[in-house]
Amino acid sequence: CSSCPAEGWNRAVPVCAGPTPVLIGVGDLRTSHVLTHVDNAQDAGAAGVLLAPVTYQPLSDDEVLRLFRTVTEHTDLPVIVYDNPGTTHFTFTTELYARIAELPGIASIKIPGVPADPTAAREHVAMIRAAIPEHVTIGVSGDAFAATGLNAGCDAWYSVIGGTLPAPALSITRAAQAGRAQEAAVESRRLAPLWELFAELGGSLRVTAAIAEHLGLVQPSCLPLPIQGLTDSQCGQVIDVVTGLDLV
Fold it and tell me: Which of 164, 246, 248 is closest to 206 using CA atoms?
């Protein structure tokens, strides 16, 4: 949160979020460093951690399982499995989901975007659900896939845009959770110009940062180096789209 001074980072979560639970992403090349990040997240007031198996050397399933076991034994915070092969270069199998989900402390699995076909999406989510304990939730990622994933039986949506523009994210989520699948799908299609910008402009992070900067939620040039934000022209393109969609 931009209002929290850097020296007060360990108080940033309760100050900025108030009663809203905040999950903090953790990951590093060494388990010892991951544990330090987990401790820092807990000290900051996090409600849980989102753990990505970051890798330099290719990891085996057993190595990833051991990472999650070590973290769950180290902390009482709920741990979410972050499956993002495009970023981590590690691909989870359903069997590995099942092995990790048996660990005490695993609360949820953040899966990559589901198939676009609703039937195929339902089958995909059902396969994962059958393999993991009932108390472990399944959350879809990739904002363009949210409505399809929620309609297919995902319990949650790990949204990029939701923290910056919560209204449309809540609209899709609440419609899907209430069984209004068509309404959720229609709202997602309405936001297609925004989803298309994610692909066109180098990823959802840059687009969301541009929106947050426009709204004054963060300082200009907020992304951590070496990531560069969008150009002025690209930012103008983003603002034109979200303004045209009545999102700002």
Answer: 164
